[in-house]
Write a structure and sequence with these properties.
The chain is of the alpha/beta class. It is built from nine helices and seven strands; from the N terminus they run βαααααβαββαβαβαβ.
Length: 207
């Protein structure tokens, strides 16, 4: 029986990449989106890509970051799916290589129990181009998942994970149910459930 569900945020619980929305404000959306795609497809180290992309956002007003973070388009079916999983007695958690401005705000809207993500460094009301947090590396999601499983006394067989990109591979390694949601090929290869439509509620038919 499943007891823990862990979802990626960008392009899984939310329809898009938060950092790409930020970049559009500075007119560098295309440049940042290319780096994001390279990282999500596994062709670029996630830590390096994160540092590179955040560096390009230096000087962006934090008020704009918050406004964008609080107006993101959530994935169709996200709320309903989380509510249903919780009604089945599961704990639902969000792991994101993105940012707390988005994941912590979405927590009560989408209904998950906790979020682990990164924090943008701000000085004098503007982004400094620096970032830190829980989800900085390729191994971060798997590492955090193992810690949660240990604390909650939950096995791999009792764990469901759902994501779309290469930085989700590390958590796929420690879960019995592995959902690739509108995912890159590198993740589909490790999944045992593949969903190709942008409707997260399709997951409920598979478990």
């Amino acid at each position: 029986m499943l007891k823990l569900a862990v979802f990626d945020f960008d392009s899984t619980l939310m329809d898009g990449e938060t950092i790409d929305f930020f970049a559009e404000e500075l007119g560098i959306g295309e440049e940042v989106a290319k780096i994001t795609e390279e990282a999500m497809s596994g062709r670029l180290d996630f830590f390096e890509s994160l540092q590179q992309r955040i560096g390009l956002l230096k000087g962006l007003d934090f008020s704009i970051v918050e406004k964008i973070s609080h107006n993101l388009p959530y994935m169709p079916g996200a709320r309903e799916t989380i509510a249903e999983l919780k009604s089945r007695g599961m704990k639902v958690v969000c792991f994101s290589g993105g940012f707390r401005t988005a994941t912590s705000y979405a927590k009560d809207i989408l209904g998950y129990d906790a979020d682990f993500s990164n924090a943008l460094h701000v000085k004098d009301g503007k982004l400094t181009g620096l970032v830190g947090g829980d989800m900085m590396f390729n191994f971060s999601k798997g590492d955090m998942l193992q810690r949660l499983q240990s604390v909650m006394d939950i096995s791999e067989e009792e764990t469901l994970v759902c994501g779309d990109g290469a930085n989700d591979l590390s958590m796929f390694a420690h879960a019995g149910t592995r959902v690739a949601f509108c995912a890159r090929d590198i993740l589909k290869k490790e999944a045992n459930i593949i969903i190709q439509e942008k409707d997260l509620s399709l997951l409920l038919k598979e478990i």
